[in-house]
Write a structure and sequence with these properties.
heterodimer, A: mainly alpha, two-stranded antiparallel ribbon, two-stranded antiparallel sheet, 14 helices, B: alpha/beta, Rossmann fold, 2 domains, 5-stranded antiparallel β-sheet, 37% helix
Chain lengths: 353, 251
């Protein structure tokens, strides 16, 4: 039922193989950066389910991952729990319930109102963790230990080992991709697509769109919870900044940058943003200017994101079109094409006479 | 004794001070093509919107197959067997014709959390969608993106999507709107085919079309029912002639 180009899953496979092999050759610093990218990629993929596939622009997505991260931190530091399955289950439950609550209120609205209400509710979650002293205050908290999976006293997975974490995160990335691919191909995914394109008609055809939107919120929240769990396990640190609107906006930018409505797009977007930030920050103190210009350039010249040219079926035709867009870009930048301008002029002078 | 499929009791809708529909009580018989006529602003579309569930009534009741459906939302009514098409083409332009019908056909699936099996493997849904596409005359366009269809074909798809939900009662809001003569006759033929095993409630301005397919006609004026009867009764009714049909039928 989908006309997506086969190039996109192929690109995802190549990216994953690249990530898997990179530690064999790469510098330790960049391996750590790659781990950060993988976690951000999972978070962005979950947001893309809402934004790119269901057309629900949420500005509170970091609330789900951040809340999960805080619960992991509290369980480890305050209760001494390091059991990986327990911590993971707690993360998913926290994010899922948060998404259920925020989604239950939010799906009644759409468009700009949905953006505003998810922003507001996300900020409520932010202030809950920011202001309640139990959670550690504005400076955040460091983890005393990291999640460990042990059966009968034998440690199977220890996430404090960087290499182990790296491949666990990669497995989660692949798992998320497969899960979302399956869901999007299913009848459930078809209805979400209907909601994005024409919500009213989808409802009139007999689908309870409210229920579908809420389910999408919860599913996206659960995956965001997984990302939050991985993020706190990766950095060993969580602060209110992890769940503020700034973080939500960054994830949204990652999705738009890479290409909305494609699962591989958010992963590519995460790569682009993290590497660009790293590169620009070394170059100048005003690195945010460079990042901003890059984002503007992508939005102007590649409106479907970095993977946009590959997303059309065929790929080659898409690339040609993308090059043509690049060629025409200067004219579009000034709001009109030269040809149109010439057409306008005689009419105007005729009107004056 | 003909069976009533849909009934309205004192159905009213106000928009602020405007009474768009006031106290309309109608009975629609199963298997009958029932047209609703009236000048612009008579409340025809408002009535259809209330019947389909797109608009809640301010007062009154709607009974479908004997059950009160007044408070039911549009998607529940669709699942019960009330399908509708819109006056202004309301399709999913990015999708192919088959995918548009697919979305309707899928509404008949039991449950809603069907998240695992790929949609294309649901053979029964596929068959329903293809059947609806065939009925509305677009089987040759199955793989065509809906946005690239001609206006007439979009109107056909509009009907096809509704048919894919396998409704028993069809609410058609100006199915011929903006169509050329030849396209119109194609759709009229389709409506005649559908009339064999469906109940049709139809709003249409094209008098030739209405009188050629409708078995019952209700004329509305200013939100009220003026008269209901057979096409012959309506054609010869003095009240209707005075209120509405005068100029067109006098000749």
């Amino acid at each position: 039922m989908s006309h997506r180009s086969p190039l996109l899953p192929l690109l995802f496979a190549l990216v994953c193989i690249g990530i898997a092999l990179y530690p064999l050759v790469g510098d330790a610093f960049y391996v750590r950066l790659a781990a950060k990218i993988v976690v951000l990629g999972i978070l962005a993929m979950s947001l893309d389910l809402l934004v790119g596939f269901a057309g629900l622009v949420s500005m509170g997505h970091a609330a789900f991952s951040g809340a999960a991260a805080y619960v992991v931190a509290a369980l480890i530091n305050k209760a001494g729990v390091t059991d990986l399955p327990t911590l993971l289950a707690a993360s998913l439950a926290t994010a899922g319930v948060t998404a259920l609550a925020i989604g239950w209120i939010s799906v009644r609205t759409s468009g700009i109102y949905l953006i505003m209400i998810t922003l507001a509710l996300g900020q409520m979650v932010f202030f809950f963790f920011h202001d309640v002293s139990f959670w550690g205050g504005a400076d955040g908290v460091n983890l005393d230990a990291k999640p460990v999976l042990a059966i009968a006293g034998i440690e199977l997975i220890d996430l404090s080992d960087r290499t182990v974490f790296y491949y666990v995160a990669l497995a989660c990335l692949v798992g998320t991709f497969v899960l979302l691919s399956v869901v999007l191909q299913s009848p459930f995914g078809q209805v979400l697509r209907g909601v994005r394109i024409n919500e009213g008609r989808t409802r009139a055809l007999g689908h309870d769109v409210q229920r579908y939107k809420l389910a999408a919120f919860v599913l996206a929240g659960l995956i965001a919870g997984l990302a939050g769990f991985l993020e706190v396990a990766r950095s060993g640190f969580v602060s209110p900044a992890h769940l503020g609107w700034h973080e939500s906006a960054t994830v949204l930018i990652v999705v738009i940058l890479g290409g909305m409505g494609t699962l591989v797009g958010p992963v590519i977007g995460a790569f682009a943003l993290v590497f660009l930030e790293d590169w620009a920050a070394e170059l100048t103190d005003h690195w945010k200017l460079i990042v901003g210009l890059f984002v503007i350039a992508v939005v102007l010249f590649l409106p479907n994101g970095l993977v946009g040219p590959l997303a059309r079926s065929g790929g080659r035709e898409g690339l040609g079109k993308a090059l043509a867009r690049l060629w025409n870009a200067p004219a579009r930048l000034f709001g009109r094409t030269p040809a149109k301008r010439r057409d306008d002029l005689p009419q105007e002078s005729a009107g004056d006479a | 004794m003909p069976e009533t499929i849909l009934e309205t009791r004192d159905l009213s809708r106000r928009f602020g001070g405007l009474r768009a529909v006031s106290a309309v009580s109608l009975a629609f018989e199963r298997g009958v093509v029932h047209a609703i006529l009236g000048p612009n602003g008579a409340g025809k579309t408002t009535l259809i919107n209330m019947l389909s569930g797109d608009l809640p009534p301010t007062d009154g009741k709607i009974l479908f197959e004997g059950a009160d459906v007044t408070g039911l939302p549009v998607h529940v009514r669709a699942r019960r067997g009330i399908g509708r098409s819109y006056q202004k083409t309301n399709i999913l332009p990015e999708l192919t014709c088959l995918e548009n019908c697919w979305l309707g056909a899928q509404a008949r699936l039991p449950g809603w959390l069907n998240m695992v099996r790929p949609a294309r493997r649901y053979r029964d849904v596929q068959a329903r969608a293809e059947r609806a596409l065939g009925l509305c005359g677009l089987e040759a366009r199955a793989g065509t993106q809906a946005a690239t269809l001609s206006h007439g074909e979009m109107r056909q798809l509009e009907i096809g999507m509704m048919l894919a939900t396998e409704p028993r009662l069809l609410l058609l809001d100006e199915p011929l709107a903006g169509m050329g003569v030849e396209e119109s006759w194609r759709v009229i033929d389709l409506l005649k085919t559908l009339a064999r095993d469906h109940t049709l409630i139809l709003i249409e301005h094209d008098m030739d079309a209405v009188f050629s397919i409708a078995q019952r006609i209700t004329v509305m004026v200013n939100g009220c029912e003026l008269e209901t009867g057979t096409p012959e009764q309506i054609r010869t009714s003095v009240a209707v002639r005075d209120a509405y049909l005068g100029e067109e039928l006098a000749a």
